[in-house]
Amino acid sequence: MHTQLSMFKQIAAPSKKPRGTVIYEPKGRAREYASLACNLYTGCDHGCTYCFAPNALRKTRTDFDNPKVRADFLHKLSRDCQQYQGITKRILLCFTCDPYQHLDVIHQVTREAITMLHHHDLHVEILTKGGSRALRDLDLFTSKDTFATTLTTLTDAKSLHWEPNAATPQDRIDTIHQFHAVGIPTWVSLEPVLYANVSLDIIRQTSEFVDVFKVGTLNYHKHAQTIDWPRFARDSIQLLTSIGYRRNTDPDILQSGDFYVKRDLARFL
């Protein structure tokens, strides 16, 4: 299960607080996943039916599902990198889009962004449903970065229903396994939870190559009413503890072998 990690812990001590144009400090629920983030594209072509990002960005679903490269993005990122240089917090790519969506196969902004961040001694944290599309950039990653994937289902049929253009569950699992095999710290986002029993099975099937699990709920969707959240909260904690993971309540100092229960789920305990 665990690699030689204390590198999930993130400590930053710049002389003064930087202010970025495209690198920013997440708020609310997102802050539980990362203290710094950057969105490379406007919109996402994975078409996940539960996605709340269009509403958060005040975009129509049609507009959001037809993503574009952010205007003058790499120039703005270069300036931000100079502001943030020296910070050891990882920068998460991405919250309101996917760094390895289909559009990135064409533009490869993610590869350029990782290269630029590394050039300024900054580290990345990838969160994607793009599966093997991420393997193109495996050569860029170091043990100071992390690679994560969101897993919601284990069957192609369910995935096509909820996430029609994302990589299949097995493709995502195989990809995170490959990152782990070469010493890159890994984590899985169990959010959104679509089927409680499936999320538990995901833990069982991936624990040998996932360093950290982050467990949440399903927000802003009526399907959430079908899930027994108190039971899922108890069952997920019991399962993770039984196979050797430790609960850590501070998302900023997660280490290999930890799991984090997001506040939306923890309130059911």
Give a quick set of tags describing it:
single chain, 269 residues, alpha/beta, TIM Barrel, 7-stranded parallel beta sheet, two-stranded antiparallel sheet, 10 helices, 32% helix, globular
Give a short synopsis of this structure.
The protein has one domain (23-266): TIM Barrel. It is 32% helix and 14% strand. The protein is built from 10 helices and 11 strands.
Describe this structure in words.
- This protein has 269 residues and is α/β, with parallel strands linked by helices.
- The chain has a single domain, classed as Aldolase class I (TIM Barrel, Alpha-Beta Barrel), CATH 3.20.20.
- Helices cover 32% and strands 14% of the residues.
- The strands form 3 sheets. The chain has a 7-stranded parallel β-sheet with strand order 5-6-7-8-9-11-10. It has a two-stranded antiparallel sheet with strand order 1-2.
- α3 packs parallel to α5 and α8 runs parallel beside α9.
- The longest helix has 14 residues.
- The two termini are 26 Å apart.
